[in-house]
């Protein structure tokens, strides 16, 4: 279900980029000084499964390659997390920075 969601969102963003004639960078700040604290909560959620690393390491058959697999996995998650966010931001520009909650 997660992969389907990622694919659908990526296709939708790709269509938006195509319709707009390319990526939109007008009005996009590298770091938004008023909202950058929100990224801390999202980052914690992104890496929430990291807490099970040591118990899994204890039952791993090949402990000699465990560190390599761990570094690759955490690196891939971080790169994918940043690339997906940048792709979405470049697709919709600064227009998507509103809160999408119905309770607001």
Question: How would you describe the overall organization of this protein?
Answer:
The protein is mostly helical. It is 59% helix and 0% strand. It contains 4 helices and no strands. The longest helix has 27 residues. It starts with a helix and ends in a 12-residue tail after the last helix. The mean pLDDT is 78.
List keywords for this structure.
elongated, mainly alpha
Mean pLDDT: 78
Structural class, from secondary structure content?
A: mainly alpha
First and last CA, distance: 27 Å
Beta-strand fraction estimate: under 5%
Strand count, sense and barrel status of the largest sheet are: none
In percent, how helical is the residue content? 55-70%
The beta-strand count equals: 0
Instruction: Categorize the overall geometry.
Output: elongated
Stretches with pLDDT under 50, minimum 5 residues: none
Furnish the topology, listing elements before pairings.
Layout: H1 2-19, H2 38-46, H3 53-59, H4 66-92
Helix pairs in contact: 1-4
Quick take:
By secondary structure, the protein is an all-alpha fold. It is built from 4 helices and no strands. The chain is 59% helix and 0% strand.
């Amino acid at each position: 279900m997660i992969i389907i969601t990622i694919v659908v969102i990526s296709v939708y963003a790709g269509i938006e980029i195509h319709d707009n004639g390319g990526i939109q960078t007008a009005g996009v700040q590298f770091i938004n000084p008023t909202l950058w604290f929100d990224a801390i909560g999202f980052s914690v959620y992104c890496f929430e499964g990291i807490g099970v690393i040591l118990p899994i390491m204890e039952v791993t058959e090949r402990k000699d390659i465990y560190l390599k697999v761990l570094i690759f996995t955490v690196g891939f998650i971080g790169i994918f997390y940043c690339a997906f966010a940048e792709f979405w931001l470049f697709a919709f520009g600064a227009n998507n920075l509103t809160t999408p909650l119905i309770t607001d």
